[in-house]
Amino acid sequence: MIFSMLVFSLMVAVIFNFSFPPGSEFIDDAAAGIIWMTFIFTSLLGMSRSFVREVDKGCMQGLLLAPIDRVDIYISKMLINLIFIIMVEVVVVPLFSVFFKINLFDSIGALSAVLLLSTLGFAIVGTLFSAIAVNTRTREVMLPILHFPVSIPLIICAVQATNAVMAGQAWSVIWPWLKIIIAFDLIFFLVGYLTFEYIVEDS
Amino acid sequence: MEQNNRKDIWGSLLKIGVFVCMTVNIYLVFQFAPQEQSMGHVQRIFYFHVPSAWIAFLAFFVVFVASIGYLWKRERKYDLVAGAAAEIGVLFATLVLITGPIWGRPVWNTWWEWSPRLTLFLVLWFIYIAYLMLRNFVEGEEKSARFSAVFGIFGFVDVPIVYMSIRLWRDIHPSPVVGGGQGSGLHPDMTFTLLFSVLTFTLLFLFLLSNRMKLEKSRIALDDLKRQIAF
């Protein structure tokens, strides 16, 4: 899974590169957007599979019968999704830096914070929605349809914050975006925490 | 039976109320309200645009409350309310997205602008389109109700976050005209017309909601009858 995600992610990055004329300066402004589009597609690819095996092979029932809190299933699935996407990001970000000729390492601390917190938000919402989508008729199609509109604030903030980081702007410019990302993470983790058990009730 | 009759009286009253208010409202909008000086007649679309937006928000709030109600009480009626309200909400949100550009073209000289409130509405529209799709793509009524209730809660909680995040961009939308502060006031006749429009649209919303629920109940009754015959 992680390998397919990685290959997919690199391909998306390379394909985006062809949408600009060679040597275009516009690419500097668009780089943050491209990075995030790559990660969003990649994370959807991974997350859409998070419950497929459990549901198809009946493993979900076993998990539900296990003497653990149901919310623990959600948290563990969410964490593994987060770890997978972060692993992809760790490989892809340096390659981006090379492909798009942007120095991302001057502000590696701020960039890591933005990447980690935004990816966490995607994992929080995506894991819950993939538990829903796996029970629908159109599985892989349903996940982005549910996921994209709800995570629009996260996409906006992640792209803007990454842009600010890459432009080497001060922490005071990045912080307002990061605040919204943190609020998104906290609020949706709470909502997911409260509602997950209603989703897996009878799977 | 007794209760049914009483319900029908309320339904008829609502129907008559909507009809009377609609008629009065059209007179108010096109005759009574004074013409706006700089925008001219095109400003009158505002009396449909703002109430539609209000109804869309109200409908989505109803979806949110009914979704919580469903997860809590597990009664079918909450799911029916949520589904009906979401459909009406999408309808009025679509009206907002249509009337907005019609007004925006002559006044802002552009059909579309990525201003916070426009973007918010578009996102809202997408969320509830997704909500309706989810309702139809899940097999089993109990499951569909459960999943859409969870998504209804997510969608509504998302609204303030969407607004916060897009507000950091430039805004060319007129600031709120009612109770907005100095220099943003409306002519008293305009305020009256606007408030009357809001009232009319709210009645229309209740009317559509009750009818949509009646229709859904009939559909369920029909399904039950079909099942009885089949066995």
Description:
The complex is a heterodimer of chains A (203) and B (231). Chain A has one domain (2-10, 31-200). In chain A, helix 5 (70-99) packs antiparallel against helix 9. Chain A has 9 helices and no strands. Chain A is an all-alpha fold. Chain A has helices at residues 2-17, 26-47, 52-56, 59-65, 70-99, 108-133, 139-150, 152-166, 171-200. In chain A, 80% of the residues lie in helices and 0% in strands. By secondary structure, chain B is mainly α. Chain B has a domain at 21-29 and 45-170. Helices cover 80% and strands 0% of the residues of chain B. Chain B contains 6 helices and no strands. In chain B, helix 2 packs antiparallel against helix 3 (76-108) and helix 3 (76-108) packs antiparallel against helix 6 (188-230). Chain B is globular, with a radius of gyration of 20 Å. The two termini of chain B are 28 Å apart. In chain B, 34% of the residues are buried. Residues 179-183 of chain B have low confidence and may be disordered. The chains are: A mainly alpha (203), B mainly alpha (231).
